Amino acid sequence: MKKHNVTSLLKMKQAHEKIVALTAYDASFAQLFDQQNVEVILIGDSLGMVLKGQEDTLSVSVKDIAYHTRCVRAGAKKAFVIADMPFMSYPDANSAYKNAATLIRSGASMVKLEGGEWLLNTVAGLVERSVPVCGHLGLTPQSVHVLGGFKVQGREQNQAEKLINEALALEAAGIQLLVLECVPSSLAKLISEKLTIPVIGIGAGPHTDGQILVMHDMLGVSANYMPKFSKNYLNATGSISGSVKQYISEVKSQTFPGPEHSFD
Ligand code: KIV
Ligand code: NA
């Protein structure tokens, strides 16, 4: 089995094969996920919540992500590895270049940034400088205090139109993957159809090109609360490797996420 890359992931979208993604923060879980053929592993700034026990992702630093990226890289042989750019590590293009370089040198093959319109120049600049970029739209947790909480986004017509336009603009600027978080299933479906690149959903319904969950949520062991869009696979299967197998099979067969994990 060959290593995944942006081309293999794009081919999966074209072949209508769902992409399975999980977060990981260390070599042992990265290796377990990798061996079970999880295609994408994200070192998420969710580590602020699930590793550090904070209420949000805002305390996470580039140093934190770089450390966990080195750990994950050591365990992941085939999976495509993406690292989150944490809060305020890309306020302008030059800071983004410098911090992205740190994460790429730590072993990430792509970096993920939260935001739309305001980020277009930075995204284009990163791609021109050979850094692959994953976008992140919808509920962007780094903006939790601007949004007034962790809430579903894009329910109103004008918000939905803005999201569609931002997704298209990010694709034009050069992103090669997009994460859509907590948006109505119908909107996520529309965006997935409009974009050529793969769209990975979380709380975005079953119609995106792939799914991602925070590993602690998927195992039901998160320190804080369990989001509605996640599923406790450890409860369902009784083992960690069984959980990963079941998650993969439910994403591939489009039985996860069900209506109870999705938003209208
Ligand atoms: O930080 C994270 O884990 C993420 C995923 C939930 C997409 O950004
Ligand atoms: Na994140």
TrEMBL record:
Its cofactor is Mg(2+). Binds 1 Mg(2+) ion per subunit. GO terms for biological process: methylation; pantothenate biosynthetic process. CDD domains: KPHMT-like. Keywords: Cytoplasm, Magnesium, Metal-binding, Methyltransferase, Pantothenate biosynthesis, Transferase. It catalyses: (6R)-5,10-methylene-5,6,7,8-tetrahydrofolate + 3-methyl-2-oxobutanoate + H2O = 2-dehydropantoate + (6S)-5,6,7,8-tetrahydrofolate. Signal peptide: none annotated. It is an enzyme of class 2 (transferase). Its main location: cytoplasm. One of its GO terms (molecular function) is methyltransferase activity. It comes from the Bacteria. GO terms for cellular component: cytoplasm. Pathway: Cofactor biosynthesis; (R)-pantothenate biosynthesis; (R)-pantoate from 3-methyl-2-oxobutanoate: step 1/2. Its EC number is 2.1.2.11. 3-methyl-2-oxobutanoate binds at residues 45-46, 84, 112. The active site is at residue 181. It is found in: Cytoplasm. Mg(2+) binds at residues 45, 84, 114. Catalyzes the reversible reaction in which hydroxymethyl group from 5,10-methylenetetrahydrofolate is transferred onto alpha-ketoisovalerate to form ketopantoate. NCBIfam families: panB (TIGR00222), PRK00311.1 (NF001452). Belongs to the PanB family. Homodecamer; pentamer of dimers. PANTHER family: 3-METHYL-2-OXOBUTANOATE HYDROXYMETHYLTRANSFERASE. This is 3-methyl-2-oxobutanoate hydroxymethyltransferase. It comes from Glaciecola punicea ACAM 611. The lineage of its organism: Bacteria, Pseudomonadati, Pseudomonadota, Gammaproteobacteria, Alteromonadales.
